[in-house]
Amino acid sequence: MKVVFASTPDQEQKIQELIRKFYSNVFPLFFTDDDIREFEQQKILHTSTRHFEYFGTLKEAYQVIAGLQTLMAILESRQMNDKYEMIFAKNVQILQEFGLSFPFAYSHFCGERMPRNNLFSVYTKAANEMLV
Questions:
Q1: H or E element: which one contains 53?
Q2: Comparing C-alpha atoms, which of 79, 81, 55 is closest to residue 68?
Q3: pTM value?
Q4: Looking at beta carbons, which pairs linking 27-30 to residues 24 or more positions away fall under 8 Å?
Q5: Could you tell me which of 67, 87, 78, 83 has the C-alpha nearest to residue 18?
Q6: Helix, strand, coil: what percent of the chain each, to 5?
Q7: Are 10 and 99 in contact (CB under 8 A)?
Q8: Residue 94: enclosing H or E segment and its boundaries?
Q9: Do 61 and 12 form a contact (C-beta atoms < 8 A)?
Q10: For the chain, first and last CA: distance in Å?
Q11: Do 11 and 60 touch, CB atoms closer than 8 A?
């Protein structure tokens, strides 16, 4: 008999939160709003109930969380370094094993970033919010 622990709703929420951060913090650094809108239509990093069945155990959910966090850390670093290319590829593979679409290679992110001061994207989180 083998005992496994199911993923928790908190883990599922964390995965959703990380995916939202990809769309609001990472993709706008490298792609235009039109590109990002296309990613949404192509369901890149899209999750459904079926996906949570794939990573339904604690171990699998943590693998997905760690993969997303690792990719985010690499892509948000100030300078892209070739020493991270293998780590990037390994984490993309982990996401794809669990059915998450991330069809990018390391080279997609090695070009010039969009300058932050010229960055007005509907996907980026507002610098401040005013409740009305």
A1: helix 49-54
A2: 55
A3: 0.79
A4: 27/123, 28/114, 28/119, 28/121, 28/123, 28/124, 29/75, 29/76, 29/113, 29/114, 29/119, 30/75, 30/108, 30/109, 30/111, 30/113, 30/114
A5: 67
A6: 60, 0, 40
A7: no
A8: helix 85-97
A9: yes
A10: 57
A11: no
- Span 18-32, mean pLDDT? 91
Neighbours of 63 (CB within 10 A): 17
Q: Which residues contact 100 (CB under 8 A, 6 or more apart)?
A: 45, 46, 47, 51, 64
Using alpha carbons, select from 60, 54, 48, 53 the residue that is nearest to residue 16. Answer: 48
Higher pLDDT, 54 or 104: 104
Please give the structure tokens belonging to residue 52.
């949570």
Q: Tell me: pLDDT of 117 over 50.
A: no
Hey, what are 104's tokens?
A: 């990018």
Residue type present at position 117: N
Distance CA 51, CA 60 (A): 11
Average pLDDT, the chain: 81
